[in-house]
Here is the input.
Amino acid sequence: MGTLKPFLEAALNSAPLENIGEPLDAEAAGALLTKLELLLSKGSPECLSLIGELRRVPGSEKLIAQMEDFYFGDASKTLIELKESRKKKEGNHGG
Here is the structure.
């Protein structure tokens, strides 16, 4: 656990809830989720460093909680669901 502590501390301190900011645009969110997917598939604790940015993606709360609890397998599944949900929403707004 000692090697994971810096990642967890960085994630928890990276973006206080009151300073989340504006939601990411579709392109930036897509790039972030793609990067996250790669890290989660490897079970890399480095994914925790993306939590601050991930807070700016609507609907990511469950995914963030799973990552913070080190449930990277469950987080991978939730990420897939989130990406599918985003595709449906983008399709509905696309015309």
Summary: The chain has one domain: 5-93. DSSP finds five helices and no strands in the chain.
